[in-house]
TrEMBL record:
The keyword Kinase applies. Residues 206-217 form the 7,8-dihydro-6-hydroxymethylpterin-pyrophosphokinase domain. Keywords: ATP-binding, Folate biosynthesis, Kinase, Lyase, Nucleotide-binding, Transferase. Belongs to the DHNA family. Its EC number is 4.1.2.25, 2.7.6.3. This is Bifunctional folate synthesis protein. InterPro entries: Dihydroneopterin_aldolase (IPR006156), FolB_dom (IPR006157), GTP-CH-I_C/QueF (IPR043133), Hppk (IPR000550), Hppk_sf (IPR035907). It catalyses: 6-hydroxymethyl-7,8-dihydropterin + ATP = (7,8-dihydropterin-6-yl)methyl diphosphate + AMP + H(+); 7,8-dihydroneopterin = 6-hydroxymethyl-7,8-dihydropterin + glycolaldehyde. SMART domains: FolB. It comes from Eubacterium album. Catalyzes the conversion of 7,8-dihydroneopterin to 6-hydroxymethyl-7,8-dihydropterin. The keyword Transferase applies.
Length: 290
Protein backbone atom coordinates (compact mmCIF):
# COMPACT_ATOMS: atom_id res chain seq x y z
CA UNK A 1 0.00 0.00 0.00
CA UNK A 2 1.19 3.54 -0.80
CA UNK A 3 1.96 6.06 1.94
CA UNK A 4 1.53 9.79 2.51
CA UNK A 5 4.04 10.87 5.17
CA UNK A 6 3.58 13.71 7.63
CA UNK A 7 6.72 14.53 9.59
CA UNK A 8 7.31 16.74 12.62
CA UNK A 9 3.90 18.41 12.67
CA UNK A 10 4.21 20.91 15.55
CA UNK A 11 1.22 21.20 17.87
CA UNK A 12 0.88 23.09 21.15
CA UNK A 13 -1.44 21.17 23.46
CA UNK A 14 -2.19 20.28 27.08
CA UNK A 15 -1.48 16.60 27.59
CA UNK A 16 0.21 15.16 30.65
CA UNK A 17 -0.27 13.95 34.21
CA UNK A 18 1.38 16.88 35.99
CA UNK A 19 -0.57 19.99 36.92
CA UNK A 20 1.89 22.30 35.16
CA UNK A 21 1.46 20.32 31.94
CA UNK A 22 -2.30 20.67 32.20
CA UNK A 23 -1.98 24.38 33.01
CA UNK A 24 0.90 25.60 30.82
CA UNK A 25 0.86 23.16 27.91
CA UNK A 26 3.84 22.30 25.73
CA UNK A 27 4.91 21.52 22.17
CA UNK A 28 4.31 18.10 20.69
CA UNK A 29 5.51 16.81 17.33
CA UNK A 30 3.55 14.30 15.28
CA UNK A 31 4.81 11.88 12.65
CA UNK A 32 2.20 9.96 10.68
CA UNK A 33 2.20 7.50 7.81
CA UNK A 34 -1.17 7.47 6.07
CA UNK A 35 -1.63 4.28 4.05
CA UNK A 36 -3.77 4.98 1.00
CA UNK A 37 -3.99 4.55 -2.74
CA UNK A 38 -1.58 7.00 -4.41
CA UNK A 39 -1.73 5.51 -7.91
CA UNK A 40 -5.28 6.65 -8.66
CA UNK A 41 -4.70 10.35 -7.83
CA UNK A 42 -1.26 10.06 -9.39
CA UNK A 43 -2.90 9.22 -12.70
CA UNK A 44 -5.95 11.49 -12.41
CA UNK A 45 -4.19 14.48 -10.82
CA UNK A 46 -7.49 15.09 -9.00
CA UNK A 47 -7.53 16.17 -5.34
CA UNK A 48 -10.83 14.31 -4.80
CA UNK A 49 -9.06 11.01 -5.44
CA UNK A 50 -6.52 11.38 -2.66
CA UNK A 51 -6.23 12.09 1.05
CA UNK A 52 -5.86 15.84 1.44
CA UNK A 53 -2.79 15.99 3.70
CA UNK A 54 -3.48 19.62 4.62
CA UNK A 55 -6.91 18.61 5.94
CA UNK A 56 -5.34 15.64 7.72
CA UNK A 57 -2.86 17.94 9.47
CA UNK A 58 -5.63 20.33 10.48
CA UNK A 59 -7.66 17.42 11.80
CA UNK A 60 -4.76 16.15 13.92
CA UNK A 61 -4.11 19.65 15.27
CA UNK A 62 -7.80 20.15 16.09
CA UNK A 63 -8.10 16.78 17.80
CA UNK A 64 -4.99 17.28 19.93
CA UNK A 65 -5.94 20.82 20.97
CA UNK A 66 -9.63 20.16 21.67
CA UNK A 67 -9.01 17.03 23.74
CA UNK A 68 -6.83 16.55 26.80
CA UNK A 69 -5.24 13.30 27.89
CA UNK A 70 -3.04 12.36 30.82
CA UNK A 71 -1.04 9.85 28.78
CA UNK A 72 0.55 10.24 25.37
CA UNK A 73 -0.40 6.58 24.88
CA UNK A 74 -4.01 7.78 24.91
CA UNK A 75 -3.14 10.64 22.55
CA UNK A 76 -1.70 8.17 20.05
CA UNK A 77 -4.54 5.64 20.32
CA UNK A 78 -7.43 8.07 20.20
CA UNK A 79 -6.00 10.29 17.47
CA UNK A 80 -5.19 7.33 15.23
CA UNK A 81 -8.68 5.88 15.50
CA UNK A 82 -10.21 9.30 14.90
CA UNK A 83 -8.13 9.71 11.73
CA UNK A 84 -9.26 6.36 10.36
CA UNK A 85 -12.90 7.24 10.99
CA UNK A 86 -12.62 10.73 9.51
CA UNK A 87 -10.79 9.82 6.28
CA UNK A 88 -12.33 6.79 4.52
CA UNK A 89 -9.49 6.55 1.99
CA UNK A 90 -6.98 5.86 4.78
CA UNK A 91 -6.77 2.13 5.51
CA UNK A 92 -3.95 2.18 8.06
CA UNK A 93 -2.04 4.73 10.13
CA UNK A 94 1.39 4.62 11.73
CA UNK A 95 1.33 7.39 14.32
CA UNK A 96 4.07 8.77 16.59
CA UNK A 97 3.55 11.46 19.22
CA UNK A 98 6.82 13.08 20.30
CA UNK A 99 7.10 14.85 23.65
CA UNK A 100 10.54 16.52 23.73
CA UNK A 101 9.72 18.60 26.84
CA UNK A 102 8.51 15.75 29.01
CA UNK A 103 9.03 16.33 32.76
CA UNK A 104 12.13 14.18 33.16
CA UNK A 105 14.84 15.43 35.52
CA UNK A 106 17.64 13.94 33.50
CA UNK A 107 19.25 14.88 30.17
CA UNK A 108 17.28 13.34 27.29
CA UNK A 109 16.46 13.99 23.66
CA UNK A 110 12.84 12.93 23.29
CA UNK A 111 10.03 10.74 24.60
CA UNK A 112 7.67 9.22 22.04
CA UNK A 113 4.88 6.68 21.69
CA UNK A 114 4.23 4.98 18.36
CA UNK A 115 1.20 2.93 17.35
CA UNK A 116 0.02 1.31 14.15
CA UNK A 117 -3.73 0.89 13.64
CA UNK A 118 -5.87 -0.17 10.69
CA UNK A 119 -9.29 -1.36 9.61
CA UNK A 120 -9.65 -5.12 10.03
CA UNK A 121 -12.01 -7.33 8.06
CA UNK A 122 -14.12 -9.75 10.08
CA UNK A 123 -17.02 -12.10 9.41
CA UNK A 124 -19.73 -12.58 12.01
CA UNK A 125 -22.21 -15.43 12.14
CA UNK A 126 -25.63 -14.42 13.49
CA UNK A 127 -28.46 -16.70 14.50
CA UNK A 128 -31.77 -16.79 16.40
CA UNK A 129 -34.42 -19.39 17.22
CA UNK A 130 -36.62 -17.63 19.78
CA UNK A 131 -39.37 -15.10 19.17
CA UNK A 132 -39.00 -12.65 16.30
CA UNK A 133 -35.97 -14.34 14.75
CA UNK A 134 -35.63 -12.02 11.79
CA UNK A 135 -36.16 -9.03 14.06
CA UNK A 136 -33.29 -10.11 16.31
CA UNK A 137 -30.95 -10.61 13.34
CA UNK A 138 -31.86 -7.21 11.94
CA UNK A 139 -31.31 -5.69 15.38
CA UNK A 140 -27.79 -7.11 15.44
CA UNK A 141 -27.04 -5.65 11.99
CA UNK A 142 -28.49 -2.26 13.00
CA UNK A 143 -26.31 -2.15 16.11
CA UNK A 144 -23.25 -2.86 13.99
CA UNK A 145 -24.25 0.00 11.69
CA UNK A 146 -24.56 2.28 14.74
CA UNK A 147 -21.12 1.33 16.10
CA UNK A 148 -18.63 3.98 14.97
CA UNK A 149 -15.81 1.43 15.22
CA UNK A 150 -17.43 -0.81 12.62
CA UNK A 151 -18.34 -0.47 8.95
CA UNK A 152 -20.88 -2.98 7.69
CA UNK A 153 -20.18 -4.49 4.28
CA UNK A 154 -21.99 -7.43 2.72
CA UNK A 155 -24.90 -9.14 4.47
CA UNK A 156 -26.01 -12.63 3.51
CA UNK A 157 -29.57 -13.76 3.01
CA UNK A 158 -31.07 -15.30 6.13
CA UNK A 159 -31.50 -19.07 5.93
CA UNK A 160 -33.56 -21.47 8.05
CA UNK A 161 -31.55 -24.30 9.56
CA UNK A 162 -32.00 -27.22 11.91
CA UNK A 163 -30.58 -26.78 15.43
CA UNK A 164 -27.03 -28.00 16.08
CA UNK A 165 -26.48 -30.28 19.07
CA UNK A 166 -28.60 -32.62 21.21
CA UNK A 167 -31.10 -30.09 22.64
CA UNK A 168 -34.68 -30.22 21.31
CA UNK A 169 -35.59 -26.74 20.09
CA UNK A 170 -37.06 -24.69 17.25
CA UNK A 171 -35.29 -24.18 13.90
CA UNK A 172 -32.82 -21.33 13.59
CA UNK A 173 -32.62 -18.36 11.28
CA UNK A 174 -28.97 -17.77 10.40
CA UNK A 175 -26.91 -15.25 8.45
CA UNK A 176 -23.44 -13.77 8.06
CA UNK A 177 -22.23 -10.18 8.17
CA UNK A 178 -19.00 -8.78 6.77
CA UNK A 179 -17.57 -5.83 8.70
CA UNK A 180 -14.50 -3.68 8.80
CA UNK A 181 -13.59 -2.79 12.35
CA UNK A 182 -11.08 -0.88 14.42
CA UNK A 183 -11.63 -3.25 17.32
CA UNK A 184 -9.03 -5.77 18.36
CA UNK A 185 -10.37 -9.35 18.54
CA UNK A 186 -11.03 -9.05 22.28
CA UNK A 187 -12.69 -5.67 21.84
CA UNK A 188 -14.85 -7.09 19.08
CA UNK A 189 -15.86 -9.96 21.36
CA UNK A 190 -17.03 -7.44 23.98
CA UNK A 191 -18.96 -5.55 21.30
CA UNK A 192 -20.79 -8.64 19.99
CA UNK A 193 -21.52 -9.78 23.55
CA UNK A 194 -23.14 -6.38 24.15
CA UNK A 195 -25.25 -6.87 21.01
CA UNK A 196 -26.36 -10.26 22.34
CA UNK A 197 -27.14 -8.76 25.75
CA UNK A 198 -29.32 -6.10 24.11
CA UNK A 199 -31.42 -8.98 22.74
CA UNK A 200 -31.66 -10.51 26.24
CA UNK A 201 -29.42 -13.43 25.30
CA UNK A 202 -28.92 -15.95 28.12
CA UNK A 203 -26.49 -18.88 28.35
CA UNK A 204 -28.34 -21.36 30.55
CA UNK A 205 -28.04 -24.43 28.29
CA UNK A 206 -25.06 -25.30 26.09
CA UNK A 207 -26.24 -25.41 22.45
CA UNK A 208 -29.62 -24.34 23.78
CA UNK A 209 -32.17 -21.93 22.29
CA UNK A 210 -31.23 -18.28 22.16
CA UNK A 211 -32.74 -14.97 21.08
CA UNK A 212 -29.49 -13.99 19.40
CA UNK A 213 -26.14 -15.60 18.83
CA UNK A 214 -23.26 -13.59 17.34
CA UNK A 215 -19.96 -15.40 16.71
CA UNK A 216 -16.70 -14.11 15.27
CA UNK A 217 -15.92 -16.57 12.47
CA UNK A 218 -12.88 -14.91 10.87
CA UNK A 219 -10.77 -11.83 11.67
CA UNK A 220 -8.29 -10.96 8.92
CA UNK A 221 -5.98 -13.96 8.73
CA UNK A 222 -5.36 -14.00 12.47
CA UNK A 223 -5.34 -17.05 14.70
CA UNK A 224 -6.47 -16.32 18.26
CA UNK A 225 -6.56 -18.92 21.04
CA UNK A 226 -7.52 -17.29 24.33
CA UNK A 227 -9.49 -18.71 27.23
CA UNK A 228 -12.68 -17.06 25.97
CA UNK A 229 -12.05 -16.54 22.26
CA UNK A 230 -10.98 -18.74 19.37
CA UNK A 231 -10.53 -17.37 15.86
CA UNK A 232 -11.15 -18.82 13.36
CA UNK A 233 -14.23 -20.26 15.00
CA UNK A 234 -13.31 -23.80 16.07
CA UNK A 235 -16.50 -25.37 14.70
CA UNK A 236 -16.90 -23.42 11.47
CA UNK A 237 -15.82 -26.36 9.26
CA UNK A 238 -18.54 -28.53 10.87
CA UNK A 239 -21.40 -26.07 10.63
CA UNK A 240 -23.27 -25.67 7.37
CA UNK A 241 -25.38 -22.91 8.94
CA UNK A 242 -22.16 -20.89 9.33
CA UNK A 243 -20.54 -21.76 6.01
CA UNK A 244 -23.55 -21.38 3.69
CA UNK A 245 -24.20 -17.70 4.56
CA UNK A 246 -20.45 -17.03 4.60
CA UNK A 247 -20.09 -18.48 1.11
CA UNK A 248 -22.91 -16.23 -0.10
CA UNK A 249 -20.84 -13.11 0.66
CA UNK A 250 -17.22 -14.33 0.79
CA UNK A 251 -16.70 -17.69 -0.93
CA UNK A 252 -12.93 -17.19 -1.04
CA UNK A 253 -12.47 -16.14 2.59
CA UNK A 254 -9.69 -18.37 3.91
CA UNK A 255 -9.51 -20.24 7.18
CA UNK A 256 -5.93 -19.43 8.25
CA UNK A 257 -5.50 -22.81 9.96
CA UNK A 258 -6.69 -25.19 7.24
CA UNK A 259 -5.76 -22.75 4.42
CA UNK A 260 -9.06 -23.67 2.77
CA UNK A 261 -11.67 -21.27 1.46
CA UNK A 262 -15.17 -21.09 2.86
CA UNK A 263 -16.42 -22.60 -0.40
CA UNK A 264 -14.03 -25.54 -0.12
CA UNK A 265 -15.04 -26.16 3.50
CA UNK A 266 -18.73 -26.13 2.60
CA UNK A 267 -18.20 -28.51 -0.32
CA UNK A 268 -16.24 -30.89 1.94
CA UNK A 269 -18.89 -30.75 4.67
CA UNK A 270 -21.69 -31.48 2.21
CA UNK A 271 -19.63 -34.28 0.69
CA UNK A 272 -19.20 -35.87 4.12
CA UNK A 273 -22.93 -35.58 4.71
CA UNK A 274 -23.71 -37.27 1.38
CA UNK A 275 -21.32 -40.12 2.22
CA UNK A 276 -22.98 -40.63 5.59
CA UNK A 277 -26.48 -40.54 4.10
CA UNK A 278 -25.49 -43.07 1.44
CA UNK A 279 -23.97 -45.39 4.01
CA UNK A 280 -20.39 -44.85 2.77
CA UNK A 281 -17.70 -44.15 5.36
CA UNK A 282 -14.94 -43.54 2.85
CA UNK A 283 -13.47 -47.03 3.32
CA UNK A 284 -10.27 -48.31 1.77
CA UNK A 285 -12.22 -50.32 -0.77
CA UNK A 286 -13.87 -47.18 -2.11
CA UNK A 287 -10.53 -45.44 -2.29
CA UNK A 288 -9.04 -48.37 -4.25
CA UNK A 289 -11.89 -48.32 -6.76
CA UNK A 290 -11.32 -44.65 -7.64
Amino acid sequence: MDIIRIEQLEIFAYHGCNEEEKRDGQKFYVDANLYTDVMTPGLSDDLEDTVNYAKACKFINKFLTENRFDLIEAVAEQTTRALLKEFPKITKVDFTINKPNAPIKLPFGNVAVSVSREWHKAYLSIGSNIGDKEGYLNQAVDMLYDDENCKVGAISKFIQTKPYGPVEQDDFLNGCVEIETLYSPQELLKAVNAIEAAANRTREIHWGPRTLDVDIVLYDDEIVADSNLFIPHREMHKREFVLEPLVQIAPYAINPISKKTAEQLLDELRGQSENVNSGCAGCQGCAMRK
